[in-house]
């Protein structure tokens, strides 16, 4: 079963280890940070009430991370980002299930009207997971990212509160049938 729990100060080292994983780094905008840079970023994250984050749990064990940036945005829209840090949890629906749980929080607890995301072109697993939850492509940014000497294009995706409300039951039913999330 997939669940989310709030990120705490005790999660810093785990997040740093995941961030160094080649399969996680591959899709990030920047190169892996130094330990010192990570600690500065993490302290800033914890202190910023406009950001919220969760550890993705698979059967009670940490498997990845999910964050919302802009939860206090007056436009009531926030950016969703996530990754599955544990190799054994990849390709099993973990990200898709975590997104559904995250959307419930975004549109429920935070009362957002829109959630959006950015995905580096080529990250088909993330694009597929986002589409399964109802995200729609809204834009394409050519040569938007430069990493490792390579220009990368980025896909922008979004989902509106009403779209999630219309799709939520079907998405959750599929995830519940696959035993990825608990019945609500």
Please give the radius of gyration in angstroms.
16 Å
CATH topology: Aminopeptidase
The dominant shape is globular
CATH class: Alpha Beta
- Strand fraction: 25-35%
Q: Kindly state the number of beta strands.
A: 7
The pLDDT mean sits at 95
CATH superfamily: Gcn5-related N-acetyltransferase (GNAT)
Order of helices and strands: EHHHEEEHEHEEH
Going by helix content, strand content and strand pairing, the class is: alpha+beta
Largest sheet: 7 strands, mixed
- Count up the helices: 6
User: How many structural domains can be distinguished in the coordinates?
Assistant: 1
What is the CATH architecture annotation? 3-Layer(aba) Sandwich
- Uncertain segments: none
């Amino acid at each position: 079963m997939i669940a989310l729990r709030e990120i705490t100060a005790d999660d810093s080292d785990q997040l740093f280890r995941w961030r160094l994983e080649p399969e996680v780094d591959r899709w990030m905008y920047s190169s892996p940070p130094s330990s010192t840079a990570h600690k500065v970023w993490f302290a800033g994250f914890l202190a910023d009430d406009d950001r919220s984050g969760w550890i993705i749990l698979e059967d009670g064990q940490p498997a990845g991370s999910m964050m919302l940036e802009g939860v206090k945005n007056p436009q009531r829209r926030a950016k969703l980002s996530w990754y599955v840090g544990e190799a054994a949890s990849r390709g099993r629906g973990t990200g898709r299930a975590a997104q559904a749980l995250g959307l419930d929080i975004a549109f429920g607890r935070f009362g957002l009207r829109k959630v959006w995301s950015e995905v580096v072109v080529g990250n088909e697993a993330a694009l597929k997971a986002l589409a399964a939850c109802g995200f729609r492509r809204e834009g394409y940014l050519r040569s938007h990212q430069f990493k490792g000497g390579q220009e990368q294009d980025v896909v922008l995706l979004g989902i509106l509160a009403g779209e999630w409300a219309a799709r939520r039951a079907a998405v959750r039913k599929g995830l519940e049938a696959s035993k990825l999330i608990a019945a609500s």
